[in-house]
Amino acid sequence: xxxxxxxxxxxxxxxxxxxxxxxxxxxxxxxxxxxxxxxxxxxxxxxxxxxxxxxxxxxxxxxxxxxxxxxxxxxxxxxxxxxxxxxxxxxxxxxxxxxxxxxxxxxxxxxxxxxxxxxxxxxxxxxxxxxxxxxxxxxxxxxxxxxxxxxxxxxxxxxxxxxxxxxxxxxxxxxxxxxxxxxxxxxxxxxxxxxxxxxxxxxxxxxxxxxxxxxxxxxxxxxxxxxxxxxxxxxxxxxxxxxxxxxxxxxxxxxxxxxxxxxxxxxxxxxxxxxxxxxxxxxxxxxxxxxxxxxxxxxxxxxxxxxxxxxxxxxxxxxxxxxxxxxxxxxxxxxxxxxxxxxxxxxxxxxxxxxxxxxxxxxxxxxxxxxxxxxxxxxxx
Length: 381
Description:
- It is built from 19 helices and five strands.
- It is mainly α.
- It has one domain (4-378): Rossmann fold (3-Layer(aba) Sandwich), CATH 3.40.50.300.
- A five-stranded parallel β-sheet has the order 2-3-1-4-5, with helices on both faces.
- Helix 11 (195-209) packs across helix 12 and helix 13 packs across helix 14.
- The longest helix is centred in the N-terminal third of the chain and has 27 residues, at 44-70.
- The radius of gyration is 20 Å and the shape is globular.
- The mean pLDDT is 94.
């Protein structure tokens, strides 16, 4: 992988464009590329794949700025009252996002649009070739890692986390979810100013919305727990839905997912690092979101426990809509019930022993003691 300046030059050459719309992305890019070169122990295949990903993110940013240059009215779009999903991974958030995406009266971040936001969807007539590209890439990923579909169900046209949009500012958990980059991970968690990343996410959402009626966005990422306060600054009228589960029931599954992702890019997966970094990431996230809620934002949250979501997902979404003050349309209700009838019971995944990741669950669970107390209150009803 070349130095970060060479990747910038490559993106400019690929697109024929020069304006990145500011320099907020540069610090994260430089730290990430240095970590990938010196810490990640990438395979030859992984080195090529991640370099292509980084150049692709830079190119997307160049294209977005070019569309704004030619059509400055995109900036007048309003992202009103978005709903942000958050919580620990493996807490039912994927099923919730799929159900919310069934509402014909909302907009969600589709995988294929997140990966290639340009041209703006409203400027495309007829079938969009980007969906076909996303479907081919999805099939290739599953062929390389058959377990991935079981660990993270999804589809090219279905909802995806916000991470690809944040990655255009190079402040995204997308990257440390793909490779061992300790210096980038520490910077991302403790030093980076995430305001510009969420501002850029808003910029991309405006571009995706442009040319269509303005309807509420449904967005999600477990890592939002680390940045709820920043999200509130960028989206002052945002509301939040938080899914919950005992951390000791999810942490090994999360680590297993990371190990699967890392295996695409390295032949030397450091499982103990995966365990250590995930405990640090999610304990920090829980502390931050508890502080945000205790600081006066608690009324902006709707809580859903994992067992309730597993038992009655349609009922949970209906209750969420009552809290939002929005109706569940007849078509939305039908779609949710059809989804429930066809989804069946997921096959349980077999995961490695906690010790594989250097974890002792008896020691991990107390690290989340404050969250566990609050979780019991939030999900008691």
